[in-house]
Every structure is written in structure tokens, then in C-alpha cells.
Write the C-alpha cells for this entry.
Amino acid sequence: MGCFCCCAVLGQAPNRSLSQEIDFARHLSKKGLHNDAIFQLNRIRNQYSLSTPGLDSLNYFTGWSLYEIKSLDSGVHYFGQVSANSGFYHEAGFFASISEVTLGNYGAATRRLMGLENLDQLSFGTEFRDFQLAGIALLQADYAGFDSLATGFTKSYYQFAREEEDLMNISLELRSIKNRKMWKAGMLSAVAPGAGKMYAGKTKEGVVAMMQVLALGAVAYEQYRRYGVSDPRFILFGGVFTVFYVGNIWGSALSVKIKRDEQLYDLHERILLDLHIPVRTLFN
Amino acid sequence: MTYTNASFWICTFLFALFSIDALAQDTLGWNYAHQLYQKGAYQSAGIEFERIIYQTNHPEWQAKASLQKANCYKQMGLFWEGQKCLEKVNLMFLNDTFHYNVHHQAALCAYLGERWNDAEGHLVQMENFVKDSNLLAKSTFLKVLVYNEQARWAEAKEILLKWAVQKGKNTAERDSLKALVEANYTKRKIPRLKNAKAADRMSTIVPGLGQTYLGYPHEGALSFLLVASSLTFAFYYSLWLEATYVTTFTVGSYFIQSFYYGNIRRTAFLAEKRNYKLTRKFNDPARQLVLALQHHGS
């Protein structure tokens, strides 16, 4: 009879405690099975009536898994749900902030950092928040804001001392980017095709453009000299030359903006990396 | 009476063993995971099998659960995940059967995910680690399928012929199986893949020749015409008739370069396309044959 009872319960969903379920979700996340972790965490949310600490853990781990699979906006939502009493509160706050920064929501990231409570509970708390805020200021080209925040960099926390140094260097590099004028590049290319691109900092492209336009100009001139201005062959090659000549002027003007965007992109990527690495080092 | 007593105790012992095993399974949630699998809830089942891997330190249970989890991935069409899951199994303390099952399933996942070299890698590992030839024989058909995809048709044929000799119950059946294999792997049927390097060289020397060799004569003719027209324009019309040297050099070199190098790039693409078509033309029916033979063998 006893054996019969044992067999009768075989195949039932086993009863497990909430902490067991959350530990297992953490295991899934640690193993890189983030989609499974999210699935498991949602199942816990639906099956258990959760207390605030339980819900905080659940929200933090859901946010973490979403962050890992690059669903940053959803991750931010769950990180934002972690209450101030939770042990995960500061982690969640910094991860939400860095996710907002990655998404380009600098204002939201700043508000999250400014709203973080009890930072004095962490030895590095205030300086780390200021470090993050300084990075965001640099991303927004707010050099005055960066300078005032950077005065607080002590470089005494090994977890982000190198990044503080790097942000200082990046701020100098950002300030040294020359403010070249689009109209000036266009004018230069009108006078000497390709010169505008060289002025913008794209020397090789400038040389290629110059050779193209000069070669087409030579063809058009040859056709003009041989057949005259009303000949269709001159009109054809003259037309091609004009398109390339005008296109080069337009392209030179644009290349100033493109070059500047490229430089900014590279530096912004470095800033993002510098902001990101310490968050993972400190809280992972 | 003594026999009756002995039988009673043996039955009781076996039943107790079964019950302990069943209870151990159920404690781990094995039956629940299976139920989910049978219901088609593959993601949930996969998570439950992962839970078993997490809960137990027993290598056998972990391997069993990993195999089941890989099945869940297979059902969801996530072959790469299935392969990765099996590649994490620690086979150090496990017997031949586990080595075989894990490598066979990993090779199958790799094959289904079209990673032929990975599949071959698992089959080679299996042959190195598994000593039981009966187990190895079970992977014959998978090996043939993998070799087919790797364009190693002669080796695939050899394996099938060997299998026919071993499996045929009598001379007549052996001969008929061998004839079936021979008929499907004749020299005429086995694709002769085009040499992409040769095609490239041909098109470099004579534009369009590579395309013609690959079986695209119209494209070859068009390539040849385009390059020839550019040359004619440059040397005959522009240079000879009109003596417009700058135009000849600029426009001629632009067109010749575009069409000539375009012809070479196109040849490389067509070589891949032709070889893919030839491979599929043979391998798709060959897969049906292999599956039919496997069915016959089982």
C-alpha cells in the first residue's frame, strides 16, 4: 500500500521552497542560460506570493538576465523595481544607470544616479556615483560639469582608478577635436577637388577624389577641344565631370561632419567601456 | 516451499531496488520533467532537466539529464544549444554507453545544425573512446550522412558496403544490399565538383571561360562580350579612329577594370553555387537511401 502511494505521487511537480527556486534561477543565469532564467523567474512570480525581499531578489535577477541578453530597456524596468531596503538596491541602481547610458538616455541615467539613497553604505559609493556622472557629462560634451565632478577623483579605488585616469585623458582628447567648418571644406574642394576632404582629415579619400575629378575633367576637355561645345560626346563627358565635381564639393562638406562623428564615436565607446567595466567589477 | 520463499525474497529485493531508483528519480523531478517533455512543453522540460543537473553530483544522472535536455533543444530546433549542452557533460567516470550516447547525440545535433566538421569531430572522439563495436555500429548511418555532406562520397560508400556485408542475413540479401549501395554511388551519380581555383584562373586568362566551365555559358558569353566591347571601344574607336588618348585611358581603363574584375568575382560566386547544387542533387536522395537502409537494418 505504501509503495502504491509512492508510485501514485510520481510525476507531480515537486514542492520546492522559494529560496530553492531563486537559487536555481541564479544557477541558470550563472551558466549563461539567461532566457531559461527569465522563464524560471517569471514562473516563480506567477506561482508564489512574494514578500518584498523575495520580490526584490526576483526583480534584480530578472533585470540582470535581461541586461545580459541586451534587453536593456526591459532590464532597466526590473532594476528600477528593487526597493531601497534590498541588499541588491545599489547594484540594481548602477546597472539601471549604465543600461540607460548605453541606450543613450543620459537624462534618465543622471536622475537614477542622483536618486540613489544611502550611498555612504558603500565605501566607494559617492565617488563611484560622481565618476559615473562625470562620464555622462563627457558624453554630453558638458566639460564644465565634468571638470567639477573630476575634482573628486581620488584614484584610490583600484576597481575604477584606471578608468578615472582614462576619463581625464578622454576629456582632453574631446576638447582637442578641431572644430572644422563644413562650408570651408566645400569651398576648398570647389577650388581644388579633393582638398576639402584632406582638410577634413581624410587625406587618402581626398587624393582619390582629386584624381577622379581631374581625370574626368581631362576627358571632358579633350572632347571639347576635338568636337566642340555642341557635340553630344562633349555634353555627355562634360555632364559626367560636372556631376563628379559638384558631388565632390558636397561630399567634402559632409566629410567634415563624418570625420567628427567618427572621432566622437570612438571616444564615446571608450567612455562607455570605462563606465561599464567598473560596474561589473564591483557588483558582478 | 524453499523455492517459493527464495522467489518471494528476490522479487521483494528487486521491487525495493526499483522503488528506490524510482523515488530517487522522482526526488530529482525526473518524472515531472518527462511529463513536461511528453506534453510538448520543451522549454519547461529543458529547465527541469537542467535542475536535475544542478541538484545532483552524480555523473550518470547529470549525463542522462543532459541527454534529455539536448532532446528538448532538438525539438525546439536549437541544434547549436543542444550540441553545447552535450559538450559540457563530464564523461570522465562514465561507461561506454554514456560516451556513445553523448557523442552520438552531439554529432547528430551538429549534423542537424549543418556543422559537418563538428559532427565528424564527435564521431572521431566516439571511435576513440568507445570500445564496444556494437555501439559504434549504431552510428554508421550518421557517419555516412556526415561524410556525404563533406563530399567524401567514396568513404561513405565504403562504409555502407561494409555494413551491407555485416547486416545481410544471407548471400542473396547481402548482394541485394550491396547492389543497392553500388547503384546509388556509381561514378556517374557521384558529383564531380567543379574546381573553383581552375575556374578562377580560366576567367583571369579568358573572361567568361570560367563561367562556361562551371556550366553557365550564357553568362560566360556576356562577360566576354562586355570585356571585349570595352577593349574595342578603347583601342579601336577611341585610339584608332578618333585619337582621343585621355578618353581612351580614363574611360577604357574604368570599363575594362569593372567588367574584367567583375567577371572574376562572378566566377567565384558561380563556382560555389554550382558545387552547392551538385552536392544537394546527390545528397538529398542519398539521405533518403541512408534512412531507408537504417530502417531496414533496425
